[in-house]
Amino acid sequence: KLSMKFGFNVIDMQEYYEKNNLEEFGQLKDGAHQFDFIMQELGKNIIANIHNFKKPKNNTNFPMNNPSFAICEATEMKFNHNQKKIYKRENSVFKESIMELSSNSIMCFSNKYENYYILASHTWNEKTNSRESQGYSEKIATVSKLCLNNQHQTVAIETCCLNWFVEFYPFKYQVTSETICYCDNSMEAFYQGLSQNKKEYLDKIDLVAFFLAYGDGEFYDNFKDYDILQNIEIYIDEKYDFNHIIPNVRNYKKGIDEYCRIMDERKLKLYRDQILKLKLEINNFNLKEMQYGLSKQRIYNHL
């Protein structure tokens, strides 16, 4: 719908996967991300075709009823401890300053953010003193709860050990002079995260920032009947449709499946050979045991 309205270029990976029955294949890596090599190829195709991308529609009739936006970084918030724990954390895309909010700490917003609404929080937790690298499933199951209280309303969201950005929708949560931010894992969170497995709770939150809005503009589209959207047939204008630059994932899957079939058979043969060898060794051992028992009995009878 936004492509039709504003003239956005579209690459619909979800549609491609559904049309080609590749949803299960698309979830094999970790359940949430595509294989890196596929996205690398897509990135190369985007670069090669960037000159073909169309500019958005230039229509002065679009309503511009936006609020004023702001980013409140955790490092500029008021802290109830003299000793602030600030870290630098980075990966190939992000480089962030992080404030550790422990379970016995409280943070407050600067006065300049009073009456702003909180749209989202940005956290980047890491397990303290963890010597072993965590996999994706372990990271989403290692959580803590970020709580906000302004005397009128308390909300809690569950954060995990990922670079994590969580919207506060559908809440309109306003910052007041009494708003405090803290970590409390006993609170019931309106956002429960991704993991359905048993969770390990951290006694701290590594907070990056809050995304805020101020004014009477439209913070979000107050649309409630999402079933209608699912049943609407949306047509993307051909000049904005760039699904043709999606790599041939079907062929990738065929190649991977063929490789796995060959390697699985070879591994199975190796395991079968090892099992057969062990069975022969056991049989030889049992035979020797039996021969030893017979010899022992003959000696006993002779005596």
Please outline what is shown here:
The protein is built from seven helices and 13 strands. The protein has three domains: 1-64, no CATH class; 68-214, Jelly Rolls (Sandwich); 250-303.
Structure characterization notes:
The protein has 303 residues and is α+β, with helices and mostly antiparallel strands. It has 3 domains: 1-64, no CATH class; 68-214, Jelly Rolls, CATH 2.60.120; 250-303. The chain is built from 7 helices and 13 strands. The chain has helices at 2-6, 13-19, 23-26, 36-48, 136-141, 226-231, 249-302; strands spanning 68-73, 78-79, 86-90, 95-102, 107-108, 117-124, 142-149, 154-160, 163-167, 173-174, 180-183, 200-201, 204-214. Strands 1, 3, 4, 6, 9, 10 and 13 form a 7-stranded antiparallel β-sheet that branches. Strands 2, 5, 7, 8, 11 and 12 form a 6-stranded mixed β-sheet that branches. Strand 3 and strand 4 form a beta hairpin. The longest helix has 54 residues, at 249-302. The radius of gyration is 29 Å and the shape is flat. It starts with a helix and ends with a helix.
List keywords for this structure.
single chain; 303 residues; 3 domains; 6-stranded mixed sheet; 7 helices; 13 strands; 23% strand
Please outline the helices and strands.
Elements: H1 2-6, H2 13-19, H3 23-26, H4 36-48, E1 68-73, E2 78-79, E3 86-90, E4 95-102, E5 107-108, E6 117-124, H5 136-141, E7 142-149, E8 154-160, E9 163-167, E10 173-174, E11 180-183, E12 200-201, E13 204-214, H6 226-231, H7 249-302
Parallel strand pairs: 7-12
Antiparallel strand pairs: 1-13, 2-5, 3-4, 4-13, 5-11, 6-9, 6-10, 6-13, 7-8, 7-11
